Amino acid sequence: xxxxxxxxxxxxxxxxxxxxxxxxxxxxxxxxxxxxxxxxxxxxxxxxxxxxxxxxxxxxxxxxxxxxxxxxxxxxxxxxxxxxxxxxxxxxxxxxxxxxxxxxxxxxxxxxxxxxxxxxxxxxxxxxxxxxxxxxxxxxxxxxxxxxxxxxxxxx
Length: 156
Description:
By secondary structure, the protein is an alpha+beta fold. It contains five helices and nine strands.
């Protein structure tokens, strides 16, 4: 009976951890904007082609991009700490609770020919530098940083 409870708890935690983990390091998620055709939270690849940025069904030609902005949000990993604390009786949760997770946000302002539009993407940590560098090169626009911390993180 005890083995069954442990197995059940392990299964519940293993299914819950992806929820707390966030997006993949090489993926992007749509976090909002003026576009209503993409569901908030949708995750997929952000493709930086030769002529346009593409995310799911949204295609933005580089010539239409007017402004790029990059920012971060750092927070504690409370969800992951709770999930791990359940299985380890709290012992394994402390290191996770004291670590921070950064979320990387890219805002793209563009004109689609009829109106000004804006979209916000959350970028995986391994694609931030490549995406911003590629977008700056292909659009000819410099990225605007939301604060000094974002600027320092990108410069490292």
